[in-house]
Amino acid sequence: MEIQEIKQRFGIIGNSPLLNRAIDIANQVAPTDISVLITGESGSGKEVFSHIIHQMSPRKHGPFIAVNCGAIPEGTIDSELFGHEKGAYTGAIGERKGYFETVNGGTIFLDEIAEMPLGTQARLLRVLESGQYIKVGSSKVEKTNVRVIAATNVDVYDAVKSGKFREDLYYRLNTVPLRIPPLRDRKEDIYLLFRKFTADFTAKYRSPPIQMNEEAQQMLVNYSWPGNVRQLKNIAEQLAVLERDHMITAQSLLQYIPQESSGNNLPMRINQQKKDDFSERDILYKVLFDMKRDMTDLKKLVVDIIENGGVPANYSGNPQVLNQLYRDIEVDGDRHHNHLHQNHQQEPTLTIQQPVVQNNNKELNITHEAQEVEESLSLMEKESDLIKKALKKHKGKRKFAAQELGISERTLYRKIKELNL
Ligand SMILES: Nc1ncnc2c1ncn2[C@@H]1O[C@H](COP(=O)(O)OP(=O)(O)O)[C@@H](O)[C@H]1O
Ligand SMILES: [Mg+2]
User: Fold this and answer.
1) Which CATH code is given to the segment(s) 3-181?
2) What is the pLDDT of residues 101-151, one digit of tens each?
């Protein structure tokens, strides 16, 4: 089959030489029974390639199973793969068929192969060499005909050197190595993939089409994508769901791309035809990154101050920021009631609210103002979350829920209406 046809059939996006080379190898090795070791970073497409190989092999009508060796406890992996006899170990009530029995005539994909225990490696080597295996707790030799495709995101040869992986098995599996390039090594595919994913997700969620300005495209392409295609797909989905503004700018993209501590994802232009433009843009990005970092520092600091009543000893930031912050907090502290919303999984969010004045004679017009360090959208979400939690905790009793939230019953009542709870 032609490479383009394969891409079409399996929904593979991209046209970089490294990707095409990988597809070419998969295409050639598919019709054979040779074991394949697929290497590549997490999210780069290893599992996709295992499907391609199976589907283009004469075993395509046979079973296919993907097993994550890193996710099965060491004590049960032998029994999962090779089955066990009745009473093979404590708790083994009945007998069990292993994958090498159920997948007979098909393909087994062994993901995270470097995590496989040494004992299991010995059994696997035997199956690969002779098609023979023995169930746990049995002495009878069984036969099977299974093709093995293994995958790893670490260097298995390192495991060989440190004695954690059998060298003979390594060579046996690695007859045909198939390397899936990380996304950062096929930059020309990034925007293509992004467009495909956003088109799919906006159709799925019926949201308006997503467009991206030139700066944001550059940022997308020059990011290092540690989570590869999976991460890109994820971000496309988030944008399709969350982004109100469907022209994505560099600034809005920054909220979705995690910042790397080394800072090596600072966008750099590949082609520097427009020199002036380049430096200007670069500075802009730098400013944006710095702003985001400052914002995060500031949030942490504020939370620390509120929680501990003092500046953390290790604070190394700008003293001016600190002083300003102190002034703000002192001013607010007199007048306002500081309230820290802390949600178990979410980042702490600080809201500063008006005091709740108890006055029985007058109807007070209490305005609830919330100053948010984050975007207001997430504040609303968190607010409504907190309110729901408080109501649930106090079994719907508004008075107690309001007390817990540090707001008046009236405010709570209004919020419930506003947020449609
Ligand atoms: N070239 C590609 N074109 C389109 N989607 C891809 C491509 N490569 C990977 N994907 C998608 O990215 C995600 C991660 O791929 P997967 O094969 O699970 O990665 P890995 O097994 O290396 O962690 C999947 O949703 C897969 O469909
Ligand atoms: Mg995977």
Assistant:
1) 3.40.50.300
2) 999 999 999 999 999 999 999 999 999 999 999 999 999 999 999 999 999
For residues 235, 238, 242, 243, the Cα torsion angle rounded to the nearest 10 degrees is: 30
Which of the ligands is closest to the CA of residue 227?
A: 1
Max Cα distance, the chain (Å): 91
Structurally, what CATH architecture does the domain formed by 184-254 represent? Orthogonal Bundle (1.10)
Atom of ligand 1 nearest to the CA of 40: 22
Q: Which mutation among 178, 187, 196, 230 tests ligand 1's pocket best, with the greatest number of atoms within 8 A of CB?
A: 230
Task: Give the pairing type, strands 349-353 and 337-341.
Answer: antiparallel
Nearest ligand, measured from the Cα of 45? 1
Pocket residues for ligand 1 (CB within 6 Å)?
A: 11-14, 40, 42-48, 193, 229-230, 233
- How many whole angstroms from 42 Cα to the centroid of ligand 2? 6
Q: Which residues pair with 352 in a beta bridge?
A: 338
* Beta strand residue intervals within 72-139, DSSP E: 107-111, 132-134
Domains of the chain, by residue range, sit at 3-181, 184-254, 298-333+348-375
Candidate of 9, 18, 24, 48 to mutate for ligand 1, largest count of ligand atoms within 8 Å of Cβ: 48
Q: Which ligand is nearest to the CA of 41?
A: 1
pLDDT tens by residue, 324-355 = 555 544 443 333 333 333 333 333 333 333 33
56 alpha carbon – ligand 1 mean position (Å): 18
The span from the CA of 122 to the CA of 131, in Å, is 13
Model-level pTM greater than 0.70?
A: no
**Helix 17-29 vs helix 46-55: crossing angle, to nearest 10:** 40
What is the rounded CA–CA span in Å between residue 12 and residue 6?
8
Ligand 1 atom with least separation from CA of 189: 1
What amino acid is encoded at 331 in this protein?
A: V
User: In whole angstroms, what is the distance from residue 362 CA to residue 100 CA?
Assistant: 78
Question: Which token pair is 63?
Answer: 């079973």
- Which residues are registered as beta bridge partners of 76? none
Q: What are the structure tokens assigned to 261, written together? A: 């501590």
Q: Which of 229, 232, 234, 235 to mutate to test the pocket of ligand 1 (most atoms within 8 A of CB)?
A: 229
84 three-state secondary structure = strand
Nearest protein CA to atom 23 of ligand 1, as residue: 43
What whole-number distance in Å separates Cα of residue 196 and Cα of residue 414?
Answer: 43
Give the residue from 35, 258, 60, 250 showing the smallest Cα distance to 151.
35
